[in-house]
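From the shared-data thread, chain only:
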Amino acid sequence: MLEILLVAFGGAAGAVVRFAFSYFSKLYLYNYFFVTLCINVIGSFFIGYLVSLGIAKNLSASFIKYFLIIGFLGSFTTFSAFSFEVVELFLLKKYYLSFLYIFLTIFLCIVAAYIGMYINNFD
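Structure, as tokens:
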């Protein structure tokens, strides 16, 4: 039961932070999909960092796993917004931009997760 509450509260917090980040970023950035890309890269970095922190420090804390990784960062990052934005770019016939967005999202999120995991090797 505790795990469900940690995921629920973490998810709620992640959704609020994502909304605020998106809202304020879109005031300054012209391309809305760039905001989602940034959110997903930041979230991937922290997921990699926290997962490897648990491995490196032998942590199995419920707070890190359920609240931060599954709840907060799972809600903060979003595949559904990414998918919607790619489809929207296709419908607007912005094919080059949509493929660039797909490539950058996949590549940068994997690199960010790797960097997050790599950082814990120095501790």
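Residues 2-122 form one domain.
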